[in-house]
Amino acid sequence: MAALTSISLDGTGTDERTWRAWLRSRRCPTILPQQVLRDAQRLVVVAPHPDDEILGSGGLLAWSAHERCPALVVAVTQGEASHPASRRFSPADLVEARRHERREALCTLGARACHVVELALPDGRVADHEARLAASLAATFRPHDVVIAPLPADGHPDHDACGRAARAAAAATGIALWHVPIWVWHWATPGDPRVPWTRMRRLPLPDRIVRRKRAALEAHTSQLTADASTGRAAVISECLRRGASRRFEMLVPP
Ligand SMILES: [Zn+2]
Fold first, then answer.
1. Comparing C-alpha atoms, which of 226, 243, 252, 234 is closest to residue 17?
2. pLDDT band for position 193 (50/70/90)?
3. What secondary structure, in 3-state letters, does 22-74 show?
4. Cα of 1 from ligand 1 centre, angstroms
5. Which pLDDT value is given to residue 3?
6. Helix or strand or coil: residue 187?
7. Would residue 10 count as lying in a domain?
8. Distance from the CA of 210 to the center of ligand 1, in angstroms?
9. How far apart are CA 79 and CA 48, in angstroms?
10. Per the structure, how many domains does the chain have?
11. Which structural domain, as residue segments, surrounds residue 233?
């Protein structure tokens, strides 16, 4: 067997045309938003950084808002480490800017009533606080919640830690947890054995929700523009952006 390449979050990532062709050929089973939210009294999205709730499950969040299902975003970090050594943004600037971007994005999504609870764990070092995060999540989850969290194999250390902590908290509380791929679309290639492709379900999104999701992502301006002071490219790569623009979302069921 060929050796697995190491995960890189830099560069341009895997081309969207490659993903679309492969995903089309796989005929992944479909699940509808109303099936995911069936019997849910609240949708809870565990977001490692401000923007992950849109990238991974913005469509489902918009759907829940449309159906008047209450929603909560658990903001694990404040995203203060997205621009290291930048002269454009200090970490404190980023906390403020990204909080504002998140609020604007949720409003654009139609989810103005969505609550946000900030845990303010250190951006980039969530794994150092994983047990504390799992305890916080277990204390937050309620019976009849449906919870969304990144895959434990999403490839970004903070996302992986959030995926593992959510899995532990869901097991302890008996609530339904769905995992979503976010960074997978950047670093992986079709069929990568580290990703649970065979368990994934395809959640089709109505056009009006796709439009809202695309517009909501545009609110995250700090993540969508290059930083001339460091020469770094936009944090949200083109393939993450295109992956979040699809007419469907992919989820791994409980
Ligand atoms: Zn993230």
1. 243
2. very high
3. HHHHHCCCECCHHHHCCCCCEEEEEECCCCHHHHHHHHHHHHHHHCCCCEEEE
4. 31
5. 61
6. helix
7. no
8. 20
9. 8
10. 1
11. 29-251
Q: Kindly report, residue by residue over 31-87, the tens digit of the pLDDT.
A: 999 999 998 999 999 999 999 999 999 999 999 999 999 999 999 999 999 998 899
| Cα 10 to middle of ligand 1, angstroms | 14
pLDDT > 80? residue 4: no
Task: CATH number of the domain at 179, please.
Answer: 3.40.50.10320
CA–centroid distance, 41 to ligand 1, in Å, is 26
- 150 CA to middle of ligand 1, Å? 9
Residue 43 lies in a domain: yes
Q: pLDDT value at position 1?
A: 45
- Residue 7 resides in a domain: no
CA of 52 to the centre of ligand 1 (A): 5
For 46-58, write each residue's pLDDT tens digit.
999 999 999 999 9
The answer to whether residue 245 sits within a structural domain is yes
Distance 153 CA to ligand 1 centre (A): 13
Q: How far is the CA of 53 from the centre of ligand 1 (A)?
A: 9
- Over 90: is that where the pLDDT of 246 sits? yes
Q: Can you give the pTM of this predicted structure?
A: 0.95
